[in-house]
């Protein structure tokens, strides 16, 4: 009898543990947004449903900055570029008297940088080297660099609820892609390990490259020229060129993602557009239309018209950062 009771207790514990582990979107608060996502996945992956989507067409695209990880007080790739300025300064003495490099070398965050200035800074600090060297530099920096405010490693600034969403979608045979305005080579150096998204499923802005044979070894060498800006209207183009089909799900957080959401949800099949709204000033940051980083204005207005799902970070997430 005691043996049977013990077996019953053990079996109950195993079942309970399995159920807890299998709970979808565990860091999402119970409510309309979580329910909408789960029901959408259910109806698009259940055979016989009028909204069923074939596995081959189950494509979900995610912005990165401000959607999968934080983006304040500046895009994290900018912090990498700042570190590169200091590293490359000995080979560029003119930077001591040229802005924004002079400020950076004095430990100051460059002020009033336009998008054009940012692109130029990234190109000048990310080019002139082989693809292997660049990947190694990004990986080395990411292994030790920490966020200036939270003091967390940058890879710990990933959103736990979004990691759960990526896993949940993949469990239902959705193929997940990153579609970011950030540099594709920068993301490919670390994102596969952090998000479980392989390099070939990462779409981003690209600087030009050329093929060279150096000391008898074939190399890809990075050039200080922007080849493609994968932002705003560039995102649907980047998706089409890389994937060749319209996504079923698109997730973003800013006006830079508006075209991607618009194009995704214009399709005939059942589709889902999601906006992550930064409303939590205690656990993260609260910002939208007045922010210089991740500005959310037109897309938030359009969300109501297009029936996009607006996720309220403060009220819809029980946890923010990766556990």
Automatic annotation (TrEMBL):
Record-linked InterPro entries: HAD-like_sf (IPR036412), HAD_sf (IPR023214)
Signal peptide boundaries: 1-21
Organism annotation: Colwellia asteriadis
A GO MF term: hydrolase activity
SUPFAM superfamilies listed in its UniProt record: HAD-like
Keywords: Hydrolase, Signal
UniProt name for this protein: HAD family hydrolase
Keyword Transmembrane helix belongs to the record: no
């Amino acid at each position: 009898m005691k043996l049977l009771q013990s077996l019953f207790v053990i079996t109950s514990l195993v079942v309970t543990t399995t159920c807890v582990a299998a709970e979808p979107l565990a860091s999402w608060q119970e409510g309309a947004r979580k329910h909408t996502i789960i029901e959408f996945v259910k109806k698009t992956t259940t055979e016989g449903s009028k909204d069923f989507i074939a596995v081959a067409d189950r494509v979900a695209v995610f912005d990165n900055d401000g959607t999968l990880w934080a983006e304040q007080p500046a895009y994290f790739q900018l912090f990498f570029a700042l570190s590169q300025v200091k590293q490359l300064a000995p080979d560029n003495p003119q930077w001591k008297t040229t802005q924004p490099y002079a400020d950076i070398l004095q430990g100051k965050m460059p002020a009033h940088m336009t998008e054009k200035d940012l692109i130029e800074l990234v190109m000048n600090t990310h080019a002139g080297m082989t693809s292997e060297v660049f990947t190694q530099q990004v990986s080395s920096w990411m292994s030790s660099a920490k966020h200036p405010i939270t003091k967390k490693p940058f890879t710990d600034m990933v959103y736990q609820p979004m990691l759960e969403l990526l896993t949940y979608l993949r469990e239902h045979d959705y193929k997940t892609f990153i579609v970011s305005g950030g540099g594709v080579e920068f993301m490919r150096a670390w994102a596969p390990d952090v998000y479980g998204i392989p390099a070939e499923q990462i779409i981003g802005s690209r600087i030009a490259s050329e093929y060279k044979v150096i000391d008898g070894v074939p190399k890809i060498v990075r050039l200080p020229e922007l080849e493609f800006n994968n932002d705003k209207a560039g995102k649907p183009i980047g998706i089409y060129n890389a994937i060749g089909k319209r996504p079923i799900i698109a997730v973003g957080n800013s006006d830079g993602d508006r075209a991607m959401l618009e194009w995704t949800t214009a399709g005939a099949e059942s589709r889902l557009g999601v906006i992550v709204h930064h409303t939590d000033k205690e656990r993260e940051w609260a910002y939208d239309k007045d922010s210089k980083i991740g500005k959310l204005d037109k897309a938030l207005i359009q969300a109501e018209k297009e029936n996009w799902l607006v996720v309220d970070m403060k009220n819809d997430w029980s946890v923010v950062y990766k556990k």
